[in-house]
Amino acid sequence: MRIAIVEDNRLLLENLKLLLSGESNIEVVGDFISAEEALSRLKETSPEIILADLGLPGMSGIELIKRVKGEMPDVEIMAHTIFEDKENVFSAIKAGASGYILKGSSPREIIEALHNLYKGGAPMSPKIARKVIMEFQDEGIGGQYILSHREKEIVRLVEKGLSYKEISKKLSISPHTVHTHIKNIYEKLQAKNRQEALIKARKKGII
């Protein structure tokens, strides 16, 4: 596989070149210390994979990923960074990175991740993979299971504009019970008011 490295730490760049060049099936075709330098020379090196730092001087690694995917969509990109916060992780993935490995990973982990990416996988450091899973559990598929069947019914009726009294009549329960359900719904959705509860319920696929 043909790999280009973008890393502004010269010592780390040399170490990565040494590590990857020692693998019989890896060819390091380019090494760059900035996004600008990489963009000016990537096409002539024709890499199949780019191992890119995110915290680059000048243009950021995330912007680099976005630019490369726009110009060379078939190139696979793996972020190699110290950043493990949600904002950087998802920004890199949205920009086009298919892998996300933290600096500090062992040489073997880096090489295995590159092979995984080359074969069509989406390698991530375990800590990053867990953040991605937790984000989807918090905001996505799992959200619809937060509320009970009755609570979902009430949220849908609230969305239609029914009052507590109308909901209690329609569901044959007391207004007090409706109020209790509404309170529980707000707590489960972490909402402060009706509008916020409806917005969060829509995001979670409840309504």
Summarize the structure.
The chain is of the alpha/beta class and 207 residues long. It has helices at residues 10-21, 35-45, 61-71, 86-95, 107-118, 126-139, 149-159, 164-171, 175-189, 194-203; strands at residues 2-6, 27-32, 49-52, 76-81, 99-102. α3 packs parallel to α4.
Major sheet size, sense and barrel closure: 5 strands, parallel
Euclidean distance between termini CA atoms: 47 Å
Q: What percent of residues adopt helix (DSSP H or I)? A: 55-70%
CATH homologous superfamily (4th level) name of the largest domain: Response regulator
N to C succession of SSEs: EHEHEHEHEHHHHHH
Low-confidence stretches: none
Mean pLDDT: 92
Q: Kindly report the spatial arrangement of strands forming the biggest sheet.
A: 2-1-3-4-5
Global structural class:
alpha/beta
Strand content: 5-15%
Q: What is the rounded Rg?
A: 24 Å
Number of helices: 10
Q: Which of globular, elongated, flat, extended, rod-shaped describes the shape?
A: elongated
Number of strands: 5
Q: Kindly report the CATH topology of the largest domain.
A: Rossmann fold
